[in-house]
């Protein structure tokens, strides 16, 4: 289903520009009653920029989470103030919690066009996407709250390779598609990228930064930040109580962070 009905070709040539302009105005307009009285109040509601996976972004649909986020050209915009358009009862509710570049570029509401991070567009569609991006980017009511991306994956890493990868990541600027540098933590044989939503905890100034680049299973089970526990990933000698703590940590990681690889046994 298209955003707008197909017009006869002759009419489309005449009014196409008017339709696009009207659509942009409609999607970015906010009723006066919902606008914050001063810019500072609107800014106070904005979360610090973070990284999102596509799955994490889907949580911000106005239902599972009260905030409504929409991705466009890899950036994530907070459109919560446009709830009349993007909320559960709005005409563009389908965009909530999704990357919608291809949909806006091609004027489509098809599910298959959602979450395309690198859509193949013709020149006209690319220009139209740039128009949408410019409107979202410079509309103060739609602040940027992060970026959405698909993390790379790594299989069968040794603990030495994991440490080397983390050191290299910290020594380099974040990738262009990311807000933060990857923060890799191994738990029970799986590597998670905690930079997707966990930067405050695992970033360089975070309380759990020492876990990055390590198989942290033993340290988590013992609730320890000792280097000796980080350097020894074995679970040997841990009792049932410690293993239960580790299981709780593993469940938390599975729930909050994307798995991006495995550790060699």
From TrEMBL:
Family annotation (InterPro entries): Cyt_B5-like_heme/steroid-bd, Cyt_B5-like_heme/steroid_sf, MAPR/NEUFC/NENF-like
Residues passing through the membrane, by range: 6-27
Keywords from the UniProt entry: Membrane, Transmembrane, Transmembrane helix
Membrane is among the record's keywords: yes
Superkingdom assignment: Eukaryota
Residues covered by the Cytochrome b5 heme-binding domain: 52-149, 176-264
GO molecular function: metal ion binding
One GO CC term on file: membrane
Protein family (similarity comment): Belongs to the cytochrome b5 family. MAPR subfamily.
Protein name per Swiss-Prot or TrEMBL: Cytochrome b5 heme-binding domain-containing protein
Organism the protein comes from: Chrysophaeum taylorii
